[in-house]
């Protein structure tokens, strides 16, 4: 969420940070409109894909895509930004697209397997977006030294740290069994049957 809010608040400065005489294919307002439309479309698309692709895989793909694009924005040469501003424009819209499904996927995956603690878990997850208030201020502190575009490394760091979650789900088998849906109709996940002693059973010789 910190990465998303940072992009929402600072993306317009990516263009004002450079030569004021550059000509964009879209106005800043239209970039915002198309970017947020891509943000919404990616959420609906990801929701449909969750029926055929495991959500943790979609989460990993979204995080990696957002990380790659934020790196591209931060490392573009200055002359490319000045002479080809529409390149930054396209990357910005792409960043909106990849960021769209991230929070809903994390929210839904984290609720899996909580049982009667689902309410408590949902409340804690709903409070999580409060971290979005921190990200824009970190970029604000950096932009005086590095410029807005170079300061987008903070977005890369935030998305890179979030990548640890799908990696954890991939590496830890028990966690993977909880979050993955089961292909067998009527069974949410595989169950491991454990032998239990029945204290009420009688011995054969009784």
Description of the molecule:
By secondary structure, the protein is mainly α. The chain has a single domain, classed as Growth Hormone, Chain: A, CATH 1.20.1250. It contains 12 helices and no strands. The chain has helices at residues 2-10, 13-16, 28-49, 55-75, 78-83, 85-99, 102-111, 118-127, 135-146, 153-162, 164-171, 173-179. The longest helix has 22 residues, at 28-49. It starts with a helix and ends in a 27-residue tail after the last helix. The model is unreliable at 184-191 (pLDDT under 50).
Kindly name the structural category. mainly alpha
List unreliable stretches of 5+ residues. Answer: 184-191
Oligomer: single chain
The name CATH uses for the topology is Growth Hormone, Chain: A
| Separate helix tally | 12
Pattern of helices and strands: HHHHHHHHHHHH
CATH superfamily membership: MFS general substrate transporter like domains
Name the CATH architecture: Up-down Bundle
CATH class categorisation:
Mainly Alpha
Shape: elongated
Rounded to an integer, what's the Rg over CA atoms?
23 Å
Tally of strands:
0
What is the compact description of this entry?
The protein is mostly helical.
Layout of SSEs?
Elements: H1 2-10, H2 13-16, H3 28-49, H4 55-75, H5 78-83, H6 85-99, H7 102-111, H8 118-127, H9 135-146, H10 153-162, H11 164-171, H12 173-179
Helix pairs in contact: 1-9, 1-10, 3-6, 4-6, 4-7, 4-10, 4-11, 11-12
């Amino acid at each position: 969420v910190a990465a998303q809010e940072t992009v929402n608040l600072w993306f317009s400065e990516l263009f004002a940070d450079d030569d004021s005489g550059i000509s964009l294919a879209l106005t800043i307002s239209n970039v915002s409109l198309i970017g947020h439309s891509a943000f919404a479309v990616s959420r609906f698309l990801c929701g449909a894909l969750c029926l055929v692709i495991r959500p943790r895989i979609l989460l990993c793909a979204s995080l990696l895509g957002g990380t790659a694009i934020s790196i591209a924005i931060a490392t573009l040469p200055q002359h490319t930004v000045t002479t080809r501003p529409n390149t930054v424009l396209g990357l910005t819209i792409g960043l909106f697209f990849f960021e769209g499904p991230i929070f809903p996927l994390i929210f839904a995956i984290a609720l899996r397997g909580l049982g009667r603690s689902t309410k408590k878990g949902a409340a804690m997850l709903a409070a999580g977006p409060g971290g979005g208030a921190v990200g824009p201020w970190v970029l604000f502190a950096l932009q005086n030294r590095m410029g807005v575009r170079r300061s987008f490394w903070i977005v890369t760091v935030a998305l890179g740290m979030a990548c640890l979650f799908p990696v954890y789900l991939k590496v830890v088998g028990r966690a993977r069994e909880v979050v993955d849906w089961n292909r067998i109709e009527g069974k949410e996940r595989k169950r491991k049957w454990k032998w239990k002693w029945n204290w009420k059973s009688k011995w054969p010789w009784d």
